[in-house]
Structure formats: C-alpha cells, structure tokens
Amino acid sequence: MSIQVVLDLPDQVYERAQQLAQSRRQAVTDVITRVLDDALPLDESGEEIEAWSESNEALDREMQAYIAMHPLLKEKYFGQHVAVYGGQLIDHDKDFDSLYARVRKQYPDEIVWISTVKAEPVETIYIRSPRFVQADNH
Fold first, then answer.
1. What's the pLDDT at 48?
2. Interior CA angle at 90 toward 109 and 53, to 5°?
3. 96 and 81 in contact (C-beta within 8 Å)?
4. Spatial separation of the C-alpha atoms in residues 102 and 95, rounded to whole Å
5. Where are the alpha helices (DSSP H) in 25-137?
6. Measured distance CA(25)–CA(11) in Å, rounded
7. Alpha carbon distance, N-terminus to C-terminus of the chain
8. CA atoms of 117 and 47, how far apart (whole Å)
9. Are 61 and 113 in contact (CB under 8 A)?
C-alpha cells in the first residue's frame, strides 16, 4: 500500500535526489522513499525517536523564521542561498557549497536552515506515484 504525498523540497535537495536516482538508475520517488525509510528512527526505546522529534522541531522553528523573514530576504538576497539559525540570518552566499561548508564548520552539530531565496518562500513539488487498479475479471 502506498500513500500519495505532496512534499515541499528545496531545489538543491531535489537535484541531489535526481542525481542519486540517475546514478542508481532508479526513479526519483524510489530514491526519496529509500532515504526517508533509512532516516526515520525505529528505536522502540523511544530515545532515538525523541531526539529525532526534537531535531525536527528545531528545523521547523528555523523554517518558520525563514518564512517570516522571506519578504526582506527577497529584497536583499534574491537568488542567493541563505542560512538561518536561532531565528536569525547568519550567512548568505551565491555559491551553495561555500555557504554549506562555512555553516557546517561554524555550527557542526546544530540544525541550520539553508535555502535559496526565490519568489516564494517554499516551492511545492508534485511527485506522482503509480496507482495499480485491479481489473474486473467478469
């Protein structure tokens, strides 16, 4: 059984998923499903799930801060990549890899929101999955 989901992904994440899918000769949806399955905690003790939940909440706080700042970011940094930590803009760059390297070095164990400033704060990407319909055998 599968469920159809609409998922908002930053361009750079989707592009990395596409590259991985091409290198593995798989569908992008299969790659994303596998990555999610591998990343989601299974620990029955609850410790890993609790840590995952806390990091997910931190990511959501940074994303909400980015969305709130988006109008100002769009005016000043349109087309650039920005990093948000603690609800504040901490860095920006035209080159994603350079920004990412600096952020990882300065905040190695922290949740930092990195996004490309575009016309809308979060773009919607629609991923279609096949549906199998059982034929009537009358």
1. 58
2. 40
3. yes
4. 11
5. 28-39, 47-77, 96-106
6. 20
7. 25
8. 35
9. no
Among all chains, which residue has been given the structure tokens 């575009």?
A: 118
Coil, strand or helix at 125:
strand
Q: Profile the chain (138 residues) by mean pLDDT over runs of 10 residues.
A: 76 86 86 79 60 72 92 96 95 94 92 91 71 62
pLDDT of residue 91: 97
Joined together, the tokens standing for residue 74 give 């769009």
For 11, the token pair is 């361009």
Asked if residues 67 and 121 have their Cβ atoms less than 8 Å apart, the reply is: yes
How many angstroms separate the most distant Cα atoms in the chain? 66
Helix (H) or strand (E) holding 24, with range, is helix 11-24
**Computed over its alpha carbons, how large is the radius of gyration of the chain?**
18
